[in-house]
Amino acid sequence: MVERIERDVARFRDIVKGKIKQNLRKFITNTELIGRQGKTIVSIPVPQIEIPHFTYQWRYVGGVGQGEGEEGEILWFEGQEGEGQRGAGFLPGFHPVEVEITLEELVELLGEELELPRLEPKSYGQMQSEKPRYKSIRRVGPESLRYFKRTFRQALKRQMLSGTYDHENPVIIPIHDDFRYRSFEYEPQPESKAVIFFMMDVSGSMGDEQKEIVRITAFWIDQWIRRHYRGVERRYIVHDAAAREVPEELFYRLRESGGTKISSAYKLCAKFIDEYYPTTEWNIYAFHFSDGDNWEEDDAEAFEVLDEKLLPQVNLFGYGQVHSHWGTGRFLHDLADEFSGDFENLRLTEIRSKDYILDAIRNLLGKQPNSEPFRQRPQSGRA
């Protein structure tokens, strides 16, 4: 009975996962999902899913085609609006079912849907953890760790030495002194550590809509990287004409009115890497979000920092350009021209709206995307 219940529960969870996959784009871009996310569990409203339920007294229910009405008469359309009537109605409404799923399962579904490759650590730090390995044998131990093969081998050896082994009747009977047990020893194993740098342009051309897109995209990037590393640090850098580090809660709300120098953020990121995150011990991921509006004379300096300091050191550098009516959108195309095919760890993407977030995550974390479409420049002039 218990096995049948567990089998039904597993089948129901597969149905839930299938429904979530069908509406994954809607769930991933839902800011309410991020807001009400608990420590490990998220609640997702899944429409049109039938919950298993008991039905009683079938013998008192009419069969197919029985009851009032003529053949072919349409009685009711599901979801159809009617003229209505005054007063309260008596029919139940249709409500989506809230199902609970772990955040890890949701991230796994995201990876399956986008076909994201597993992130391979490039560096292992000096910090080590002890992992037990069963590599020795002892004469004492719990029965759950009894090594039966070695126990019977020891019993056979004892009976042959004592002359009690009968070749005609080869029966081996272990005694307590023959018992052998598996035993473990702790072995040090290096642990991989990771740091994520999130950088964002907070100049006047980046509005609330653009920052909301960055917030959602950064959240799922963060969750995917955390899935592959035990210890993950995050640093948040904002910039207009100058860059500075801010707490996470301020990162998505801050707005400045100055100009834009992207190189200032890249220099600060490179400084943090040199001072705190040696590449021999840390796996480094850096993501920059902007509307593509940069002071033209700053491009060369930004490219120099990328080429000489950031790209040679990081596991992955991603640039996401968020569409803005006030930004020129040129920096993405300048990057594609400058570094086309030079670095495999450079990923570029354009996020025109929330509908493009899933595609942006695929471009930033998936297999090497084709940068050729970004080399086609917009026709408007540079600001």
Keywords:
3 domains; 6-stranded mixed β-sheet; Rossmann fold; 20% strand; alpha/beta; 11 helices; 33% helix; single chain; two-stranded antiparallel ribbon; 383 residues
Please characterize this protein's 3D structure.
Strand 5, helix 6 and strand 6 form a beta-alpha-beta unit. The chain has three domains: 72 residues, no CATH class; 61 residues, no CATH class; 183 residues, von Willebrand factor, type A domain (Rossmann fold). With 383 residues, it is α/β, with parallel strands linked by helices. The strands form three sheets. It has a six-stranded mixed β-sheet, with helices on both faces. Strands 1-2 form a two-stranded antiparallel sheet. The chain is flat, with a radius of gyration of 31 Å. Helix 6 crosses helix 11 and helix 8 packs parallel to helix 9. It has eleven helices and ten strands.
What is the strand and helix layout of this fold?
Layout: H1 2-22, H2 24-28, H3 31-35, E1 41-46, E2 97-102, H4 103-114, E3 128-138, H5 148-162, E4 181-190, E5 193-201, H6 208-226, E6 231-239, E7 243-245, H7 248-251, H8 262-276, E8 282-290, H9 299-310, E9 316-322, H10 331-339, E10 346-351, H11 357-365
Parallel strand pairs: 5-6, 5-8, 8-9, 9-10
Antiparallel strand pairs: 1-2, 3-4, 6-7
Hey, roughly how much beta strand do the residues contain?
A: 15-25%
* Number of alpha- plus pi-helical segments: 11
Task: Give the name of the CATH superfamily of the largest domain.
Answer: von Willebrand factor, type A domain
Q: What's the CATH class label of the largest domain?
A: Alpha Beta
The strand line-up of the biggest sheet is 7-6-5-8-9-10
CATH fold node name of the largest domain: Rossmann fold
Q: Write the element-wise H/E pattern from the N-terminal end onward.
A: HHHEEHEHEEHEEHHEHEHEH
Radius of gyration: 31 Å
C-alpha termini separation: 71 Å
Tally of distinct domains: 3
Mean model confidence by pLDDT: 81
- The dominant shape is flat
Instruction: Please bin the fraction of helical residues.
Output: 25-40%
Classify the secondary structure makeup into a structural class: alpha/beta
Note poorly predicted spans: none
The CATH architecture classification of the largest domain is 3-Layer(aba) Sandwich
Largest sheet: 6 strands, mixed
Number of strands: 10
